[in-house]
Design goal:
about 150 residues; 5-stranded antiparallel beta sheet; 5 strands
Length: about 150
């Protein structure tokens, strides 16, 4: 049986807005994506990692303790309870038509990831993840006109 769970959290801390998107597509692994933005929308940090589902609690405790410790050493930051709303299509499956449109816009256009995110109603992290899923390199300055591989085809 396939389990699919998605959670999203967003917080403003200091002058940054942080977004965390957690996705559990199987009973075995969890994907965690993190992004930090300045008020003007510029992305200043982003990353993702995959954990075994069995390691969620200890890894979460370790990450929290490590980041809180580092924040204490660096002087910390004031936490705000204001949260940004999630993009309109956050957590919804991609259709074949959206995949085709994203592939076309990425390979033929010059729109930045943020603009594609607004167009599709998704986060920057979601756009980057979907480009990778489609076999396109989201970090390729040449726009990956030659897909690395297409995992949607047999």
């Amino acid at each position: 049986m396939r389990t699919s769970v998605q959670l999203r959290g967003e917080e403003e801390i200091g002058d940054r807005s942080y977004a965390v998107h957690v996705r559990m597509d199987t009973d075995l692994t969890v994907t965690v994506e993190l992004e930090a933005q300045l008020p003007d929308g510029a992305v200043v940090a982003e990353g993702s990692f995959i954990l075994p589902a069995s390691d969620l609690v200890p890894a979460g405790e370790l990450i929290e303790a490590t980041l809180r410790g580092l924040a204490t050493v660096r002087g910390g930051g004031k936490v705000s309870s204001r949260a940004r709303p999630a993009p309109a299509n956050a957590g919804t499956p991609w259709s074949a038509e959206q995949d085709d449109e994203l592939r076309r816009l990425w390979t033929e256009g010059d729109q930045p990831i943020a603009e594609l995110g607004r167009h599709f109603g998704r986060s920057r992290a979601a756009i980057k993840a979907r480009l990778s899923h489609l076999g396109l390199d989201p970090d390729d300055p040449e726009r990956g006109t030659q897909p690395r591989h297409d995992i949607t085809k047999p």
